[in-house]
Each structure stands twice: as C-alpha cells, then as structure tokens.
Amino acid sequence: MPEYTTGVKEIDDKLYARYDVLVNNLRAYNPEFDIERLNAAFDFAAGAHNKTLRKDGSPYITHPIEVAIIMADMSMDLDAIIAALLHDVIEDTDYSFKDIASRFGEPVAKLVDGVTKLTRINFVSKEEEQMENLRKMLMAMAKDIRVIIIKICDRLHNMRTIEYHKDGKRREKSLETMQVYAPLAHRLGMARLKTELEDLSLRCLDPVAYGEITAELDVRIGDKADFLEKVCKEIENRVKEEGINAQIESRIKQIYSIYKKMFSQNKAIFEIYDLFAVRVIVEDKDDCFAVLGLIHDLYHPMPGRFKDYISTPKPNRYQSLHTTIVGEGVPFEAQIRTREMHEIAEYGIAAHWKYKENVDDITQDERLKWVRILLESQQDADAEEFIKNLRAEMFIDEVFVFTPKGDVINLPAGSIPIDFAYAIHSAVGNRMSGVTINGRIAPLDYQLKNGDIVEVLSQNSHGPTRDWLKMVKTSEARNKIKQWFKREKREENIHQGKQDFEAELKRSGITMAMLSQDDVLQQVLRKLSFASVEELYGAVGYGGITALRAVNRIRDELIRMNRLQSEKSSVERVMHNLKKHQPNDSGVVIEGLDNCLIKFARCCAPVPGDEITGFVTKGFGVSIHRCDCINVTEKQRDEGRWVRADWANDKNSLYTAGMRLSCKDKDGLAMDVFGVLSGMKISMQSFNAKTIEDGYCLITLAARVHDADELESLIRKLKNINGVLEVNRYGH
Ligand code: MN
Question: Which residue spans within 267-356 are E strands per DSSP?
C-alpha cells in the first residue's frame, strides 16, 4: 500500500477507492506488474501536489489518478501509467526532470517532460505561434506517441470536470478540444475518447442545441427502449443456437454527430436513420460472417448499406462489418467485430500496447504516416496554410483505390486522379497526361470512389497546369505542384505574380505610396521570409502564397502600424480583423462550428465589412445579423444562442443590401438612381417608389454588393443625386 494520507479519513477513503480501481484495472491485463513502482509513483505525486486542491475542492492527486485510470482502460504499459500519475509534477511543483528520472527512470521522465511541453502550449493563439506549437506537437508525436495519448486522456478528464471553470475558460478549452484534441484522437483511431471529447465540448459551445438534442433523444429512446432490448435478445438467442459466443450491446448515436446532421444537412431528428445501433462482439473472424448471415436472416437488410471493413480495413485500422437492417419498421445499424477489432476501434493506436504489435516500430505505424508527410511537406508553408492543412488532415475521411498492380492507396475523400498520381510519386504526377478508371478514360477531376482501379497515363513532355492547384484535394499534391512551378517557371512566375499582386492591391484600395511608408512592404517581406519583392512575386506566381493573402498581410501590417501610432483602435477590433477561419460557402465563419447552415437575416441584410453576430436558430442553422440590428438585444444575448461570426475574406460573393431613399419627387429621379447603380456596375434586385405626401416620395431598393465599402460609396453617390434628401440602410 502507498503511505500518502491527507489526514482526513473520508477524503483518503475516496482517494484510495479510486486508486484501487486503477490497481485492479492494471492487474486485469498485466497480473505481474510491479506494484511497488506504482505505489512509489502515487506517493511521490500525491506528496508533490500536497496542499493543492482541484477546483471542485478535492485533493489535486485525484486528477492524475483519473487520467491513469483512463490510460489503464486502454491497457497501456506501466511506464505510461506511471507517467500519467506524474504528468503535472514538473509543470505544477518544484520537482524537475532529474528528480523523476532518478526515481522512476529516464523513459518515464521523458514522457512527463513531453506532456509538460504540450501543456504549456496554447493552441488558441496567434497564427505564427499556433503553427510553431502545432509543429512541436507533431514532432513530439513522431518521437513518442504515448505523450499525446497521455495528453488526450488528461484533456478528457479536464473536460469531464469543466463545469468548475469560469465561462470564458470553459469556452476556450472546449474550442481547443474541438479543434485540436478531438480531431487528433480521431486520427489516431481513438473513437471512444474522440466521441466523449466532442460531446463534452459541444455541451459548452452550444448548450442550447445540446439540451434540445438530449431532451429529444430521451423521448425517442423512451419510445424505443423495449424495441432495442428485444432486438438484442433475439440476436443473442439466435447466435447461441448456433453455438457462437457473443457479447451484444445496443448504442445510441453520438450527440455531436446528430448535431452535425441536424445543422449541416438541415435534418430533423426523426429524419436521422442511424440513431440506434446494435454491436455484436465475437471471438473470431469466421464468427463475424456467421453472425452477419444470421442477422440478415432475422431482419430485412437495407440494400447498399453493407460494408466490409474486415477485408478492407480503414487506414486507422478500423475493422468491422456494418449493415443496416429493418425490424418492426425501425431501421438500425449492426456492427459486428472480434474483441481485438473492437478494442482497436475504440482505442486505436493505444491498443498497440495490449496487442504488442511490435511497440518499437510504432513510429512507422500507418496511422502516423500523415504526421511525417505533413512535417516534411510543410517546411516552407506559411502559418495559415500549415494550420489549414493540419486541420484538413486531421478531419479527413478516406477512400481506398488500387494501382493496376493491386496496391492499395489511401486518399482523403473527394480526391481526384491527380492526387493519386502525386501520392505515388511527384514524377508520376508531373508527367500525368490522362487517366483511366477501371479501364475507361476519365476526366482528371473525376472523384475517386472506393475500389476504383486507377491507371495514370503519362507523357514525358507534360507538366501540371495552374488549374490543378485548385482541383486537387491533398496538401501533398498541392505542395508538389507548387514545387514544380517554383522550379520550372521562374520568370513566368514573377511576371504572373506581379500582375496578380498589383491587381489585388488595387482592389483593396491600398496605394503604392502607403506601401513605401514606414517600410511596410519590407516588414511584410521579412515576416513572410521573402528576401526580395521578386521572390514574393515569384511565390504568388507559382501559388506558394495567394495574392489575396499577401495583400491581407500588408493590410494587417498597416493596421498594426496604425495602432502603434494612435493606440486608438482597441486590440479586440484588430484581433477581429486578423482572425481567419475556414469559410463556408456563404463567406461567413462561425466560431466553433464548421459547415453549419448560414442564412442572412432579412431584417438588417448584413454585407462584408459590417460587424456581425450569429444566432443559432432552432433546427435551421445560424442566421447572421448586423451587431447593430434591432433584433440583437441584450436579453437574447443572455440566452447563449448568439455565437461569434466573422466574414471570411471572400472577394467574389455578392450580398443583398437594402436601402431607403427619402426624396423630393421630381422628374427623372428614378433614372438618376439607375444611372448611379449602372455607373458602379452594381446590379439591382428590386426597386419600388411611392409618393407619400405633397411633393415627397420614398424609394426602397435592394442591390447586390461585394462589401460594406462598396455599399458606403453607393450610398454616398445616391445622396449626391439632386432631390435625394436622405439614404438609410434597411432590410429587404
Ligand atoms: Mn493534467
């Protein structure tokens, strides 16, 4: 037994009850483990954190114990469990790396040290820092993946106890979890942890929707509880008759994935078919197929829904048979797998340690290949691009296709033959002239499907075109194409880049004179690591950086300078301008929610440049209002349904803006208004004029504009028309 005591028997009892859980869990998969070492680690950690309390009032050591228990659920090795017990010692107490190394050995100390470095990283930080931080994290992962596993378990326990934190902190942690830790867990195949992390984050990020979904689910489960129980029983009996040993459980779809379906596909909960699933866990592969046959006998299978991930595992090694069947008119999914497949499905890369798939080789694991590729291919990408690519890599679903020789190539879903060619080798991509899919000629932008046999046709004289950059899905292909342009077409790149850059500059209203003031251009070149302006043009030309981004950096720099000079604009406002997320089609980004449905409120008709906010409507996505809209009231703000929204820097979209003109009625007034619009090449969506009282009239019109600047100059010109007294923005 360890010796540590808090001096209060009640607290000790609770503590030791949890410690016993840890010991018993460990013993279950590692009966011979060195309990003295574990006890020593417990005593050391508890002593080191002595006097420190968690926010809920319990002794600090409860947290490392819970983290270690989560690790033991995944059957991790003893060094990793001990490191989990010690994971906050370097960060929060006076003990050092050496203190841990001398007591528990260098491997444990290295793990704790790695976790400490990750703990110090704030992923929701400025772009450059964020990239450096993420790079560090990827390096740590490539070195010893257990560091990340401990960190993910640490985050899971912190999220489970998040209610003790203040509101702002809760949101920040939840956002970070949603953006970094859950996708990482997903990428490492740790489905069980990923699911819980997402649901816990969602509860903080959108409490209203979370509450609605859980309430709705309670009703539906109430309806179907008997049904599910009956189905499980039926399958169990049938399987037993055949002499197969199986464990059967039912499960409800994860809240976050229901949320995504409701918002991104705009579905009502009763339209989601796979709310319920039955999972059958058997002893070996033959049993899997036998059980599949029995289930298809018992219920009516839905055509086209059967998936065999046993013969073709997913890249994260997920294996299972999936089928959707209908019983009593209710569709539900059945997942059939062996115990080992089950643990790999739930714990992913962490299951390595249990099944001892050559632990030393873990850095070569397929599930980590993307980390290496990303680190290699992103040497000279800029921060924003790197983060975008990392997010994309972490979130992907995949397709599997075959080479003519039968080798399997994994690519992100939505990949095209060009991605395939570059995945094989850059030389194959650079010489690609065409492609056949399953023996037939196909276009280069064909979307690859699972099982396609892809043959690349090539020509020595061929090279990529700039269009390819817009078509490809993988960052690997994009980078290789850029490399080709960078190498092969220097002069052409500089020429093309200069044109693009100057056009973009003009569009944004920045003059050359502004560029030379205070060395703005030089500053930006240095920040982007370009030695000269030619180099910047070259990079714009080959696609290393877009003209829009280069100009945005210049604008950011101008804003920064301006702030330094006047200190007038608040930091908040500047941060607002700097913050850029992945846009969706509407040109608006919503904090914490990707791909949600966006509507523009008709009451205030916001256009880019307006300060905006989003309102989470019941079941219909997010509607975007101007911050100064009369419908945005303090009372509603308190209801937690308002989310932060920003404009993406999208120069091409048009937005409808409404305005009202008070005028003196005179001949030709309407013609003058039309004249202003056509002079500015702005198209009109609606126009209405009515006489109000002696000699006055009111015109309402809606026009399609790019942004608030354009709208403002339109309003200015309208005001200059003889007879127009006043112009106000209005809904439409
Ligand atoms: Mn911790």
Answer: 276-282, 300-301, 307-308, 321-327, 330-338
